[in-house]
Amino acid sequence: MSENVTSSSSSEPTKKAEIAKEPEPAFGWNTYSERINGRFAMVGFIILLLLEVLTHQDLFSWLGLR
User: Fold this and answer.
1) Separation CA 56–CA 64 (nearest Å)
2) Between the N and C ends of the chain, which has fewer C-beta atoms within 10 Å?
3) Percent of all residues in the chain with a pLDDT value above 70, rounded to a whole number
4) Which range of residues forms the domain containing residue 38?
5) pLDDT reported for residue 6
């Protein structure tokens, strides 16, 4: 009996390393827009905290609502 010996590289397709892609901007409710919205909300919250620390007033007093 003779056995056919083949190399494993020729029988299996070559697997390339998958590179993580950034999602492309799209219209509507999707994960990309939600991620960007969350980041802007965090930045806005930090700015609000800094404003209150620097002026020693809360947001309503700063806007003239109190």
Assistant:
1) 14
2) N
3) 68
4) 30-66
5) 57
